[in-house]
């Protein structure tokens, strides 16, 4: 069967399920479980017959959303926090990988370009950051400091924890919320943060502060930078739903997109909270060997990669 014939044959069922997703408060039809099983079969057929990627993505997203509705009262979801950590958050990242990759490129590309630029031409930093702020960064990462990042006494760690929470959550929320402007806001915030972080990293490296700078950021960087990218991906998803609502009104498309976007934002907020804790109580210490700090950061990077790649996969529809 050709793809257009396959689509014409089953279009009615797909539209019925999409309308159900657009109105989540509406009671489920008694035939919903059977319709869900048919949808899973349609996805398997589309993959086996090598139909277009757009059709497979549509059916896959529809299967995931229907799965959430159908099994929202099962044993795992009764423990909502466990469901969220084991399945909800990592699955939302995997099912929106296209937005995650786009956000990562928007963040990392300017970071690398400006990092290399400021490393090879240190004066470039002043085109991005004013001289006073540059001087404050130099003071923060001076190897003569008792603590890295900020000069402070140990009893101030709790206060700095609160500061980092406010700063990290603020950046994450702005990255996500600005996506409501058809995704342009998230694009701007991602690029801006990439430029700023890359410029500072490149400048401090060429200035000879690489030892203190990198041992400070390596511990919490995996959590903080990844969470910023995820918030950007959530913002891009919101923006895309407004740009290309498909068969829905923009409001309906926004509601559908928001369900997974909010899951991503909640998970990212948790990551930013963890990053703030590490930044306040671990990253600033100079009493630990560099090998320990770098091993700590690398271990978290590997664990996060494994978590988002595999956690909760056994619960996903086949």
From TrEMBL:
Q: Which Pfam families match?
A: SpoIIM
Claim: Cell cycle is one of the keywords in the record? no
Q: Which UniProt keywords apply?
A: Membrane, Transmembrane, Transmembrane helix
Q: Does the keyword Cell wall biogenesis/degradation apply?
A: no
Q: Which domain of life is it from?
A: Bacteria
Q: Where is the signal peptide?
A: none
What sections of the protein cross the membrane?
97-119, 180-204, 216-240, 261-282, 294-310
What's the protein called, per UniProt? Stage II sporulation protein M
């Amino acid at each position: 069967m050709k793809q257009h014939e396959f689509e014409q044959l089953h279009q009615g069922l797909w539209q019925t399920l999409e309308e159900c997703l657009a109105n989540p408060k509406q009671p489920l039809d008694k035939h919903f479980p059977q319709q869900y099983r048919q949808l899973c079969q349609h996805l398997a057929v589309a993959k086996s017959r090598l139909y277009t990627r757009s059709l497979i993505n549509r059916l896959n997203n529809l299967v995931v959303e229907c799965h959430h509705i159908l099994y929202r009262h099962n044993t795992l979801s009764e423990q909502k926090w466990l469901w969220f950590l084991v399945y909800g958050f990592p699955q939302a990242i995997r099912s929106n990988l296209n937005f995650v990759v786009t956000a990562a490129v928007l963040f990392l590309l300017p970071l690398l370009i400006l990092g290399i630029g400021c490393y090879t031409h240190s004066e470039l930093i002043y085109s991005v950051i004013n001289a006073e702020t540059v001087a404050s960064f130099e003071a923060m990462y001076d190897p003569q400091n008792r603590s890295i990042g900020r000069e402070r006494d140990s009893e101030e760690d709790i206060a700095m924890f609160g500061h980092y929470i406010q700063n990290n959550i603020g950046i994450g929320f702005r990255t996500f919320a600005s996506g409501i402007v058809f995704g342009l806001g998230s694009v701007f915030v991602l690029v801006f943060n990439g430029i700023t972080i890359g410029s500072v990293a490149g400048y401090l490296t060429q200035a000879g502060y690489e030892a203190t700078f990198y041992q400070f950021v390596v511990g919490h960087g995996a959590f903080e930078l990844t969470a910023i990218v995820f918030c950007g991906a959530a913002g891009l998803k919101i923006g895309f739903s407004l740009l290309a609502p498909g068969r829905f009104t923009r409001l309906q498309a926004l509601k559908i997109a928001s369900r997974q976007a909010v899951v991503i934002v909640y998970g990212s907020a948790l990551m930013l909270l963890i990053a703030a804790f590490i930044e306040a109580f671990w990253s600033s210490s100079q009493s630990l060997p560099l090998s320990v700090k770098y091993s700590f950061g690398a271990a978290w990077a590997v664990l996060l990669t494994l978590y988002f790649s595999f956690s909760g996969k056994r619960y996903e529809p086949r």
